[in-house]
Specification:
Blueprint (H helix, E strand, L loop, with lengths): L16 H18 L6 H16 L13 H30 L45 E2 L17 H19 L2 H4 L5 H4 L7 H12 L19 E3 L5 E10 L5 E15 L6 E14 L13 E10 L28 E2 L16 E2 L3
Parallel strand pairs: 7-8
Antiparallel strand pairs: 1-3, 2-4, 3-4, 4-5, 5-6
Length: 367
């Protein structure tokens, strides 16, 4: 046999000193323990007595086997009991996660978009149709987070001279704006979105003037849907109290000595008619906001308020060219009451593409 070590075995020079020393001590101990020893006089007497008993056939049965150790039995028993106690809750937890993956934070199955932008649209939907009991059946949003839980803030870090606390404040204000403009029940049922307006800087008068005009007298030029998700309560009612949400938020150094935040989120609203019909449909709204928390020392801005740089939206499944300030979902059983679509056909769940300019009234491939 060759004394050359094989390639997959470490050489002595590759073994850390403390490991090698421990190995040496253990080896010496084992050698001392296994070395033959001269039996004592008592041992020789016992051995001789047992030999004679064996010759006479008087050896006690199973004398070479000892009783089981109570300590071993007890330890094994406790291990089995512990597994029985922990196993049931663990099985229940696994079953719950299998039925509703969104119970786990952060979307551990790779569907979370809060850290990286999507590179492709979701897979094709199931052929199921939405119902009062399952309003998200057949929709990719079935596995999205519920409402505010879908707006996950990135970890705040200082950007240039802007402190971490300042960045965190900007992120929280952006989330507050998104929630108040798209998830707040009062806003969704068509009431004035006071909480959302309170986040915006009053020293940016053009924006607030336009939004107030849109809320007071909506038109094609001044449309509140560019910033707020609203349904006419006399026409539409929500199905359940869950709005599905998915998107991501990023930040960078702003142009006004502050921090600039970009928010790109999609909201899915299951709705029904207010006339008592049980037919369910969904409207999908995607919003892209660019806001900044500017430095109030260097610029004429309000402390703790956001300046909106740009905002854009895309609405899936709402009648075209109806400018009364409300979303008007179309149901499969009803005819289109708005203008016929003239724009492209798009998938409202495809978050891998940028929003098209022009806001042409198009057709959605699914709701």
């Amino acid at each position: 046999m060759s004394d050359k070590p094989s390639d997959d075995q470490p050489s002595a020079s590759e073994i850390p000193d403390d490991v090698w020393e421990q190995f040496t001590r253990d080896t010496e101990r084992d050698i001392r323990g296994s070395a033959p020893k001269e039996p004592s006089a008592r041992a020789r007497m016992v051995t001789e007595r047992l030999r004679r008993q064996e010759e006479r056939g008087e050896s006690p049965p199973a004398w070479r086997t000892g009783p089981e150790s109570p300590e071993v039995n007890g330890r094994a028993g406790r291990r089995r009991t512990l597994w029985a106690v922990l196993g049931v809750p663990l099985a229940v937890a696994v079953a719950l996660v299998a039925l509703k993956p969104s119970l786990l934070p952060g979307d551990p199955f790779g569907r979370d978009e809060s850290r990286a932008a999507p590179s492709a649209p979701p897979t094709a939907p199931d052929p199921e149709i939405p119902t009062l009991d399952e309003p998200f059946a057949g929709s990719p949003a079935l596995h999205w987070a519920d409402g505010e839980a879908g707006i996950v803030l990135p970890e705040a870090k200082a950007v240039g001279p802007v402190s971490r606390d300042r960045v965190e404040q900007a992120l929280k204000l952006t989330k507050k704006l998104l929630v108040a403009a798209n998830l707040d029940p009062e806003t969704v049922r068509g009431e004035r979105p006071e909480a959302a307006l309170s986040v915006l800087d009053p020293k940016q008068p053009k924006l607030l003037d336009d939004l107030n005009t849109a809320l007071r007298s909506p038109s094609g030029k001044h449309d509140p849907l560019t910033m707020f998700s609203r349904f006419d309560p006399d026409e539409i009612r929500p199905v359940g109290d869950v709005i599905k949400t998915r998107g991501r938020m990023t930040f960078e150094k702003g142009s006004h000595a502050g921090v600039a935040v970009r928010a790109d989120y999609t909201f899915v609203y299951p709705v029904m008619r207010a006339d008592g019909s049980t037919e369910v449909t969904r409207t999908i709204v995607r919003r892209v906001l660019d806001v900044e928390l500017a430095d109030p020392v260097r610029y004429r801005v309000t402390q703790g308020r956001l300046t909106v740089r740009t905002y854009d939206e895309e609405i899936g499944n709402s009648s075209c060219d109806v400018h009364d300030g409300y979303l008007h979902p179309e149901f499969p059983s009803s005819e289109n009451k708005g203008t016929d679509p003239t724009g492209p056909t798009t998938d409202p769940y495809d978050r891998s593409r940028s929003l098209d300019e022009g806001h042409a009234c198009g057709t959605v491939t699914r709701t």
